[in-house]
TrEMBL record, chain A:
The keyword ATP-binding applies. GO terms for cellular component: ATP-binding cassette (ABC) transporter complex. GO terms for biological process: putrescine transport. Residues 4-234 form the ABC transporter domain. It comes from Salipiger pallidus. Pfam families: ABC_tran, TOBE_2. GO terms for molecular function: ATP binding; ATP hydrolysis activity; transmembrane transporter activity. Keywords: ATP-binding, Nucleotide-binding, Transport. The lineage of its organism: Bacteria, Pseudomonadati, Pseudomonadota, Alphaproteobacteria, Rhodobacterales. The keyword Transferase does not apply. This is Polyamine-transporting ATPase.
From TrEMBL, chain B:
InterPro entries: Bact_Polyamine_Transport, MetI-like, MetI-like_sf. Keywords: Cell membrane, Membrane, Transmembrane, Transmembrane helix, Transport. This is Peptide ABC transporter permease. It is found in: Cell membrane. Residues 61-249 form the ABC transmembrane type-1 domain. SUPFAM superfamilies: MetI-like (SSF161098). GO terms for biological process: transmembrane transport.
Length: 337, 259
């Protein structure tokens, strides 16, 4: 268990800057999500922390040790790969025991720790199976057990749940969080799924074009996004058209650069007449019913807006009808454009 | 069954007949007591007994087997290393090198053999068993590279990355992850190499010393002097061994496909 820190890490592949001056601290025992669209550099950052790439400049610290020039096999990490990368010719137990054997922990200790790991991922009786005989979810657990069984300083997960179908994914989110808490290893995981990041992580970092956009606890990043990109990538943002800003109670503009204002879909209320406080007229485009919740797609002076609320709380409104959208002044986001 | 399908089956039957009838005939005659292929067939193992008593044949057979084993060992090791290098690294001239590895399959053996003979004489190796081994290795190498490369193309490099992430160094990764995965390809390539060497006539004929020859060369020389059914006997043994080896190779490699 160790704190991990990257300081001004830069990495280029040919002419593309995959990582550009990334400084991040990953708390000891924390669960950190690297979030970003494809090509944002999140996987490169994970692989650079792992040691598959060496940074062009900048430093990486794991615990007390600077590791930016140390190859993977000497970094004492545990990594789980997107496709799990289980050894097809080894049984579940031998897959999990691979790193222990490399470390020469001895046969008894090896056996004990494999059993312990199998227990933790709830695959107690499957040690003798071959990977080909496992379901997707079981393989995922084996890959996870294999990554943490050596008690590495840091656990790196590359899109850990993306290969699972949706219902299994939600179960595994809960499982992953429980296991991470029990083993208590500093964990960094890469995902492009914002919900996964919000559910699992205690801190998230949003990357874009190789640069860190914002880092912080999920709620903080969601409630106070720093940039328009962060606001739109983590959750949905309804942008307030500039022409309509007059007459609204707005937070102070940012000290540098142009400021844009937005609301979250769940902060809005809908009414037939103009409500008190911040409000804008809108036209209903369509209503998407999803059981408990419903989403309204609206048009605010040409800007597409969304409203999300419990279906029973939304009055019946015909498509094309003019309505008013209101929100509390404190719910207005002010972000860098 | 349509007429076309029927015609197809007949065609297949004819192809198999023309392929195997002479061989079966020879095998049958190796058990026929008459030295002149006379019928009625009279079962006898006389020719096998004669063959076993013929020191020349036994010597040549043992030499062939020994050479084939040495060639298999060298060609498999070198070919596997080459395949891994070609798979793992990108270097200038890689495509050219890959193409250059194939002529031993494409160039007629007669030409390769002549060229080797001239070359080995000019550099002082001359004729003899070492020359035969070098020649066979050169011929067998492409077969090993083709089979091992076919297997490697199905290899997932993240397996190596996973092993490294668990602390395994280069050699451990190679020994515990890469080699076990491509082992079927290596075995198949080795069997091909063995067969190429053991069945090799042309190159052996050019490169071996008279009186110090391999079995196929001895058979050829014996036939020129006058045919004896002992040749049927030894040929039957060779064919049985070769077919068994090729059958194993085909099963192991599945000709590059996955099982």
């Amino acid at each position: 268990m160790s704190q991990v820190e990257t300081t001004r890490v830069t990495k280029s592949f040919g002419k593309t800057k995959a990582l550009d001056d990334v400084s991040l601290t990953f708390d000891d025992g924390g669960f950190f999500a690297l979030l970003g669209p494809s090509g944002s550099g999140k996987t490169t950052l994970l692989r650079t922390i792992a040691g598959f790439h060496f940074p062009d400049s900048g430093s990486i610290r794991v615990g007390e040790r600077n590791v930016e020039k140390v190859p993977v096999e000497k970094r004492d990490i545990g990594m789980m790969f997107q496709n799990y990368a289980l050894f097809p010719n080894l049984s579940v137990a031998d897959n999990i025991g691979f790193g222990l054997r490399v470390r020469k922990v001895g046969a008894t200790e090896e056996k004990r720790r494999i059993a312990e790991a199998l227990e933790l991922v709830q695959l107690r009786d499957l040690g003798n199976r071959m990977p080909a005989q496992l379901s997707g979810g079981q393989r995922q657990r084996v890959a996870l057990a294999r990554a943490f069984v050596t008690r590495p300083k840091v656990l790196l997960l590359d899109e850990p749940l993306s290969a699972l179908d949706k219902s299994l994914r939600i179960d595994m989110q809960v499982e992953l969080k429980r296991i991470q808490r029990e083993v208590g290893i500093t964990t960094i995981f890469v995902t492009h799924d914002q919900e996964e990041a919000l559910t699992l992580a205690d801190r998230i970092g949003i990357l874009r074009d190789g640069r860190l956009v914002q880092a912080g606890p999920p709620r903080e990043v969601y409630d106070r996004p720093a940039t328009a990109f962060a606001a739109g990538f983590l959750g949905d943002a309804n942008w307030i058209p500039e022409a309509l800003l007059g007459g609204l109670a707005l937070p102070a503009a940012l000290p540098f650069g142009p400021t844009r204002y937005a609301t979250r879909p769940e902060a809005l209320t809908i009414s037939a007449t103009r409500p008190e406080g911040n409000a804008l007229p809108a036209r209903l485009v369509s209503r998407v019913f999803a059981g408990a919740m419903a989403t309204l797609l609206l048009d605010v002076a040409g800007e597409p807006w969304k409203l999300i609320a419990r279906d029973r709380d939304i009055p019946a409104v015909a498509e094309g009808q003019e309505v008013w959208l209101g929100w509390a002044a404190g719910d207005t986001l002010a972000v860098a454009a | 069954m349509t007429l076309l399908a029927l015609a197809g089956r007949v065609w297949l039957g004819l192809v198999l007949l023309f392929l195997y009838a002479p061989i079966l005939m020879m095998a049958a005659m190796s058990f026929n007591a008459s030295p002149f292929y006379q019928l009625p067939f009279e079962f006898s193992t006389k020719w096998y007994a004669d063959m076993a008593g013929n020191d020349q044949i036994i010597d040549a057979a043992l030499r062939s087997v020994l050479i084939a084993f040495v060639v298999t060992a060298i060609a498999t090791a070198v070919g596997t290393a080459a395949s891994i290098a070609l798979f793992r690294y990108d270097f200038p001239g890689k495509r050219v090198l890959q193409v250059l590895l194939f002529p031993p399959i494409a160039i007629p053996w007669l030409i390769t053999g002549t060229a080797m003979l001239v070359f080995f004489f000019s550099i002082g190796i001359g004729r003899g068993t070492p020359a035969v081994i070098i020649g066979h290795v050169a011929l067998a190498l492409p077969y090993v590279i083709v089979t091992v490369t076919a297997r490697l193309s199905a290899f997932d490099v993240t397996l190596e990355e996973a092993a490294r992430s668990m602390g395994a160094g280069q050699w451990t990764v190679l020994r515990r992850v890469t080699l076990p995965f491509i082992a079927p390809g290596i075995v198949a390539g080795g069997l091909f190499a063995f067969a190429v060497s053991f069945d090799q006539f042309v190159v052996s004929y050019f490169l071996s010393k008279p009186g110090d020859t391999t079995l196929p060369v001895l058979i050829y020389t014996a036939i020129r002097k006058g045919f004896t059914p002992e040749i049927n006997a030894i040929s039957t043994i060779i064919i049985t061994v070769s077919m068994a080896v090729m059958f194993l190779a085909a099963r192991k490699s599945n000709f590059g496909g996955d099982r």
